[in-house]
Amino acid sequence: MIHLKQGDMLAQVGSVVACLMFVWAMFKQYFPYELRDRLEKYNKRVFTFVYPYIQIKFHEFTGERLMRSEAYSAIETYLSSSSSMQAKRLKAEVVKNNQALVLSMDDHEEVADEFKGVKLWWVSGKNAFKSQTLSFYQVTDEKRYYKLKFHKRHRDLIIGPYLNHVLKEGRALKAKNRQRKLYTNNGSYWSHVVFEHPATFKTLAMEPEKKKEIMDDLITFSQSEEFYQRIGRAWKRGYLLYGPPGTGKSTMIAAMANLLNYDIYDLELTAVKDNTELRKLLIETSRKSIVVIEDIDCSLDLTGQRRKKKEEEKEGDEKEQKPKLPKEERDSKNSQVTLSGLLNFIDGLWSVCGGERLIVFTTNFVEKLDPALIRKGRMDKHIELSYCSFEAFKVLANNYLQLESHQLFAKISDLLGEAKMTPADVAEHLMPKIVPGNAQVCLESLIGALETTKEKAKLKAEKKKHERRKHRQPKRKQKRQTTRP
Ligand SMILES: Nc1ncnc2c1ncn2[C@@H]1O[C@H](COP(=O)(O)OP(=O)(O)OP(=O)(O)O)[C@@H](O)[C@H]1O
């Protein structure tokens, strides 16, 4: 009996559906287009009135030139973790030099998310259009999108805070997964290679407190978007790294990039023709970047207009006798990039570009730089990288020889207090050698080098003292002669 009743019901439902389809087909076939359109409009209005959910679509490509939407890509990355947990069909992409896998949900999958106790759903979809071009093969254009669905009573929470949260998290995850690049400029064009420098703050030889202070400063900067926005200043920070060659200036820049996940732009100022080219280069830097100008004292006449004018006058006088300069020097003289141009761009341009940027100047001769260039606000932090201290040596010994302590450390500590040796030179002695008793041999070689350096420094100081005394004696003699009646 029951079986019969169910069968009857199914037959009835089937005939009702068939009837409705027939009516709909007739309606589409014979009703005038305008009337049909109007009816569909009212139909949708009734539907949205009864349906309590709001839907927002984010298309993959937007704009007239169909650029890939940044929001779509941020959403895709944001949803990757919930997709890998919830979706049954996934898409995989390999990033970071084939080392990391990013999963996203395949078309027509749905995942749920929760924000401040409110549940919402993301659906991935695509529209397929037949291409208008004539082709033997059927060509279809596919336009993908994400659709966000939530109850209308949460409209304010979702449209404001939730979507901001999704975009921010998505961008941050994307930045973490992306491969960083090292850019160098050839004139006004950047070319890049993948940045894979292994230096980190852990391997940087430096006193621990100083290292911590720099790391804290960098991390605070990278988390201060709202602060910079509130005070109305560009989100940028300037670092001046100074010290003798081989003390780790370039190594520190690599460690900064690895800590913050930034790209590096190594700006060769002598190759930039004028301020227009400089502006173009600076505008093209990515949102998370370190712009480096190495050996700023040699790059250009960055000491500004005052000295430039004097030099021009002098040049006029000497023009006839001057021998031809080597090419690099000529380039730097031909470049019309000025100190004021550079400073104006750094100060002004990035205020409108958005993004977080560090600008790092390095020099071996800090005293040569114009105070205007390095004043606080332009170069916010001045960091001296100096000769190797015992604390710095311990980092190198751990890096190179995996040694925490050794009986020779005490002697090395004393010698480092008396002899000046750069971390680069110390590191050279700690390079592994193919002999038995490796660590001992390395440390003894370092001790030998430190003793030689100490002796040389002592001899040099004595020689200097002697020369000074010699220089003073004739003066005194002269004085005695002039004062004698
Ligand atoms: N503080 C340091 N910590 C770890 N390694 C260092 C340090 N200083 C120098 N080195 C080692 O010495 C090499 C040269 O250092 P680096 O190029 O960073 O010096 P620099 O100060 O930038 O020199 P320059 O002024 O000549 O450019 C590096 O490859 C690195 O291995």
UniProtKB/TrEMBL annotation:
It catalyses: ATP + H2O = ADP + phosphate + H(+). Pfam families: AAA (PF00004), AAA_assoc (PF14363), AAA_lid_At3g28540 (PF25568). GO terms for molecular function: ATP binding; ATP hydrolysis activity. Residues 305-333, 457-485 are annotated as: Disordered. PROSITE patterns: AAA, PROKAR_LIPOPROTEIN. Gene3D superfamilies: 6.10.280.40, P-loop containing nucleotide triphosphate hydrolases. The keyword Hydrolase applies. This is AAA+ ATPase domain-containing protein.
